[in-house]
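hiii so um. not sure if this is the right channel but i have a protein structure encoded as tokens and i wanna go backwards to a sequence. like what aa goes where. can anyone help
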């Protein structure tokens, strides 16, 4: 029952996020995707996961223990550090650092985690800057 109440709260949050994103209006568009795309995508993903939680709530109860809670707490702290370091260190370096920590949290050894995170940061930068033509921060420590 608690899972379904939580999923209902997430659905309300997803609708509120989608409504707020839909009202975003900028006088000029400096990127091809625009400012509405990311919050709308997040709202749709949040709504889909909330629906999944409402339909199949028992799967999460079985696997959720103290170790997983600590892992989730570390993930949230890493995401906060990622948001904080994004402009300071730039996309590639901050993605590499956080990607390495995520890969270690989910079982990769140090060597594979470093390679995976480097590929994630490099490919992500190429996709966002060349393919989507988005302004990706270089980092203020690198003069960006």
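sure thing!! here u go:
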């Amino acid at each position: 029952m608690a899972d379904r109440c939580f999923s209902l709260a997430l659905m309300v949050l997803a609708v509120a996020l989608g409504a707020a994103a839909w009202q975003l209006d900028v006088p000029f568009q400096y990127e091809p995707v625009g400012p509405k795309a990311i919050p709308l995508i997040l709202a749709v993903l949040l709504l889909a996961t909330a629906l999944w939680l409402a339909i199949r709530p028992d799967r999460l109860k079985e696997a959720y223990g103290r170790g997983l809670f600590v892992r989730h707490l570390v993930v949230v702290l890493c995401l906060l550090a990622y948001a904080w370091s994004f402009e300071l260190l730039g996309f590639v370096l901050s993605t590499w650092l956080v990607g390495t920590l995520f890969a270690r949290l989910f079982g990769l050894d140090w060597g594979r985690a470093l390679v995976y995170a480097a590929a994630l940061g490099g490919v992500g930068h190429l996709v966002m800057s060349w393919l989507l033509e988005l302004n990706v921060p270089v980092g203020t420590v690198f003069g960006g």
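oh and The CA atoms of residues 7 and 50 lie 5 Å apart.
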